Amino acid sequence: MKHSVYDYSYEMRQLRNKRISFVLMLTISIILFLTLFLNFVLFPVWVHSESMDPDIPKNSAVFVAPMLRNPKRGDVVYLSRLDDENQSVPKSFLNELAEFFTLQQIYPFGYTQRITGKPSLRRVVGLPGDTIYMKDYVLYVKPADQNLFLTEFELAEKSYNVHIYSIPAEWDNMGATGVMQKRVLGDDEYFVLADNRTESSDSRLWGCIPPQRIKGKAILEYFPFNKIRLF
Hints:
By secondary structure, the chain is α+β, with helices and mostly antiparallel strands. The protein is 23% helix and 23% strand.
């Protein structure tokens, strides 16, 4: 029967136990740190679609600040899944860890393939209390404290680009509409749009977004590295 040095040395056993305890405490500390970091400081989001093209193209990556959940007009926000399917705390935690380390490439307890079954980036164009309508894929907005309609671009604090294709007349009833009648947003309603207006889904199909759906604000595009910029 073979014996190890730990069988004979109390001090060695103590040292081994201290090392094991240290590794366990370090692992727990890292997990707690990542949990707090992901929930309160910053997390990365990999862009899988062309919905925010041209400013945030497919296969780019952005950092989202989860504490910034009161968006201004023109801000890009990260929205939670819209299908009301809730996951248990352990599954949600494992998903968040996998999202962080793989840039949203792997979800152990994945999202559905439905459009509303995945988080998404969208631009806030209408704020609570606004009166809005759409013409030729451009939103016209009358804020609650103003009397005149202005385009979304005139009201936004920062400039941005949208992608609008020429659509054949026979496609008028296909895809996301470019025309909307006037409506007034409620006190807890945000109207969000994709920058790729012709091909993407947003509040035109989903309806207005309540504030609890906003998981954070995009603050930095960090990939590709030659196009790093602040929003």
